[in-house]
């Protein structure tokens, strides 16, 4: 038997591991199973190239809980270690530079990229165990070795009588970590981190129901048998070639990833690249709700089929974090707890690749089946519009598939829309005005007024539409967007021919003074306009700039300081050519004038959904009085 000191001169290395190195103690199991997987796959490689003469067979990793003895076992059938290799890999390599590590990282160990530099994955075992044993037999002919360490720098290494190849790690679970002796907790961790590991992982047994014998009676119970409980799928869909997968394979994998999700995904994107970095994965477009926050943290990041995190910000462009699925890359640099990304050029390249791949897929879906793409537009537009805002390259590519739906249910690309409306909706200053509505019902009268003129009205109702149209206006030449209720239609698209007012200048001045005395000035700016005589007498609009800035402020950024908290201000557009407006001006009694003005104002407010509470009650009472 050999006794020795681990190559570290600082006594408190183990408490430091426990306290600083890993923020999450549960990942010890992921680390140890990753090591067991590496040992198994390395053996497979050595047997394939003829460097190992053993039979590879069908190895698996087994996890066993011995609650009474307070032990947890992780057993593999991989390449194992000789006593010399234990000495080298466990006692020396793991702690080479430990003093440097302590000096450099004791104040900020959580932020440091330590695993790769110091080989400390195995030592995560000491977070939950006060004693760890390794019993290992190499695939070579050397005798088995038994290593023991109780968390101090001292260890023992002796020969063991193990005859089968592979390694068994035995953790003597510490008093403060007995949760890891519960089957349910271990099962939870295996499913979280190791669900798709490339080597089968056995954890206990499960009961399987067998078919009934032909001669069984109807009320006879079906026979059962105990079988090995293999908790993982070693060959998940993303590890296969797209050519080898059918549509049903993708759907089945989606259900495997999200067993509680009952809606089918709309479509998927299979990622597969091996240069200049290695990345595989499958992304799914689910049906999107208007609430962008709710959707995030559904993409799972793996490294060589080991789950790392579902916080993929930085790897996946932000607008795609609303998607679901899996990304697997060995080239993503992670810190010691594998929970956070480190800044790295490769990550930016990966992010750009994913953006390009998603844009190409959307373009091909649009080209191959436009009708289906249009049918799905409402469920995917949030992602596409957000991408157009946040990623310049995606914005450029989206020109080919981003859609602009109209209130009548027609869908246009930008180029199609431009060609459709340029003849009619170009104003006197040669600017193309694109009209849009955000609510077909609430803005119905304004939409109808525009359609009477032969104008197209888009339906743009996503929460980020104000940001998007701002982006389009600054990118495209000589265009502007105007919400259809932002002004009366002749002001939204000003042509050369303007209507002549029936009122004289003196009459207009008298009307303006009268209205200002009755209409609350803190809420409405009065605007006298000569319109068609059959247009609405009173119309409420909100200036495009003011409303858009408020909306942008409310959806984060883009607005002017404090704009989101400003009181609502509206324009009251009064049609000087309306018969009713003429009657208001010519009515002899002041009381009747006020009544007509208030009634007309309330009707205009009602059409915009602005009449509520006491004011609505008063309006209804006044209306009944007027028809008595």
Which labels suit this protein?
628 residues; alpha+beta; Heat Shock Protein 90; Ribosomal Protein S5, domain 2; Rossmann fold; nine-stranded mixed β-sheet; five-stranded mixed β-sheet; 20% strand; Hsp90_fam; ATP-binding; Ribosomal_Su5_D2-typ_SF
What is the strand and helix layout of this fold?
Layout: E1 2-5, H1 13-21, H2 28-48, E2 61-66, E3 71-75, H3 83-92, H4 98-105, H5 115-118, E4 129-137, E5 144-149, E6 154-160, E7 166-173, H6 183-193, E8 201-209, E9 224-230, H7 247-257, E10 267-273, E11 279-285, E12 299-303, E13 306-309, E14 324-328, H8 345-368, H9 370-390, H10 392-398, E15 404-405, E16 411-412, H11 414-421, E17 432-437, H12 444-452, E18 457-459, H13 465-475, E19 479-483, H14 489-492, H15 505-518, E20 524-529, E21 538-541, H16 544-554, E22 570-575, H17 579-586, H18 590-607, H19 613-627
């Amino acid at each position: 038997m050999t006794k020795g000191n681990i190559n570290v001169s600082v006594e408190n290395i183990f408490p430091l591991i426990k306290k600083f190195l890993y923020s999450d103690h549960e990942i010890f199991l992921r680390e140890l199973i990753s090591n067991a997987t590496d040992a198994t796959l390395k053996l497979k490689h050595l047997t394939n190239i003829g460097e190992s003469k053993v039979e590879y067979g069908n190895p698996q990793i087994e996890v066993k809980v011995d609650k009474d003895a307070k032990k947890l076992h992780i057993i593999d059938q991989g390449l194992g270690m000789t006593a010399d290799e234990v000495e080298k890999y466990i006692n020396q390599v793991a702690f080479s530079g430990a003093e440097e590590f302590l000096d450099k990282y004791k104040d900020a160990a959580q932020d440091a990229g330590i695993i790769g530099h110091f080989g400390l994955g195995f030592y995560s075992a000491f977070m939950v165990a006060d004693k760890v044993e390794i019993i290992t037999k190499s695939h070579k002919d050397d005798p088995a070795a038994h290593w023991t360490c109780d968390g101090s720098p001292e260890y023992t290494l002796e020969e063991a009588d193990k005859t089968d190849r592979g390694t068994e790690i035995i953790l003597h679970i510490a008093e403060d970590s007995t949760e890891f002796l519960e089957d349910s907790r271990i099962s939870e961790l295996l499913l979280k981190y190791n669900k798709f590991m490339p080597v089968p992982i056995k954890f206990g047994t499960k009961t399987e129901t067998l078919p009934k014998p032909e001669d069984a009676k109807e009320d006879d119970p079906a026979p059962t048998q105990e079988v090995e409980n293999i908790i993982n799928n070693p060959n998940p869909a993303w590890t296969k070639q797209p050519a080898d997968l059918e549509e049903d394979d993708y759907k089945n994998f989606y259900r495997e990833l999200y067993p509680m999700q009952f809606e089918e995904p709309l479509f998927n994107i299979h990622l597969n690249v091996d240069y200049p970095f290695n990345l595989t994965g499958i992304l799914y477009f689910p049906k999107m709700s208007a609430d962008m926050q709710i959707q995030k943290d559904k993409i799972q990041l793996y490294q060589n089929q080991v789950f790392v995190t579902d916080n993929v910000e930085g790897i996946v462009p932000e607008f795609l974090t609303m998607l679901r699925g899996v990304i697997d890359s060995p080239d993503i640099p992670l810190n010691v707890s594998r929970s956070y990304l480190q800044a790295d050029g490769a990550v930016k390249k990966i992010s750009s690749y994913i953006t390009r791949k998603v844009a190409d897929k959307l373009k091909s879906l649009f080209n191959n089946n436009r009708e289906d793409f249009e049918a799905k537009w409402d469920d995917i537009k949030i992602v596409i519009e957000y991408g157009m805002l946040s990623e310049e390259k995606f914005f450029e590519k989206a020109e080919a598939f981003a859609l602009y739906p109209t209130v009548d249910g027609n869908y246009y690309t930008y180029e199609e829309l431009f060609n459709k409306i340029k003849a009619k909706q170009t104003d006197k200053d040669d600017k193309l005005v694109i009209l849009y509505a955000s609510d077909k019902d609430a803005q119905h009268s304004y939409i109808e007024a525009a359609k009477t003129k032969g104008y197209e009205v888009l339906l743009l109702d996503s929460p980020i539409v104000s940001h998007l149209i701002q982006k389009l206006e600054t990118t495209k030449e000589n265009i502007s967007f105007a919400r259809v209720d932002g002004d009366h239609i002749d002001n939204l698209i000003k042509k050369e021919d303007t209507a002549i007012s029936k009122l004289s200048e003196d009459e207009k001045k008298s009307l303006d003074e009268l209205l200002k005395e009755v209409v609350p000035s803190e809420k409405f700016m009065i605007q006298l306009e000569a319109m068609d005589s059959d247009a609405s007498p009173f119309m409420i609009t909100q200036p495009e700039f003011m409303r858009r800035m408020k909306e942008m402020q409310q959806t984060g950024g883009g607005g002017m300081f404090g704009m989101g908290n400003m009181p609502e201000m509206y324009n009251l557009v009064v049609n000087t050519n309306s018969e009713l407006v003429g009657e208001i001006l010519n009515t002899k009694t002041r009381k009747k004038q006020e009544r007509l003005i208030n009634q007309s104002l309330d009707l205009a407010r009602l059409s915009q959904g602005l009449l509520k509470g006491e004011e609505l009650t008063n309006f209804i009472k006044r209306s009944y009085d007027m028809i008595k």
